[in-house]
Design a protein that fits this description.
mainly alpha, 74% helix, elongated, de novo design (two linked rop proteins)
């Protein structure tokens, strides 16, 4: 089974998106959240209510906003929530940099998770553009 980007799927009438979990953007964001969650388990306990909590919440916000946008009826509402997801994604990227620079994340963990965030970013931008262009 070939996986199609959300942007291509949005213009291909054969590939039906029935639920928000069908969106590649949501799937990528969810995978990113799971990676963030796993990596932050190793953060010190004193960071539990600091960067650990902030990073997890921002990462979860990405897929949550995609899901909420999917449930909206108008194109402007959908686009708004997808753009909010993009903002949360940038927040995660900033927090990953902070975690790396304060040695909370190893260089290897940072590289892997940041790479996932960039993949999510590209897919999400495709979804935003496709949503804006749809009639």
């Amino acid at each position: 089974m070939k996986i199609m980007s959300d942007e291509k799927r949005a213009v291909n009438s054969e590939a039906k998106i029935v639920n928000f979990t069908d969106l590649n953007a949501w799937q990528s964001a969810h995978k990113l959240y799971l990676s963030v969650y796993e990596a932050t388990k190793a953060f010190p306990k004193e960071e539990l209510f600091g960067i650990t909590s902030q990073l997890r919440r921002a990462a979860l916000s990405i897929s949550s906003n995609i899901a909420e946008g999917f449930g909206r009826n108008s194109k402007p509402d959908r686009t708004h929530f997808y753009v909010m997801a993009r903002g949360s994604l940038f927040e995660v990227q900033n927090q990953l940099l902070a975690a790396r620079d304060t040695a909370l994340l190893s260089g290897e963990d940072f590289k892997n998770i940041y790479s996932e965030s960039q993949i999510t970013q590209r897919i999400l931008i495709g979804l935003i553009n496709a949503t804006r262009e749809r009639k």
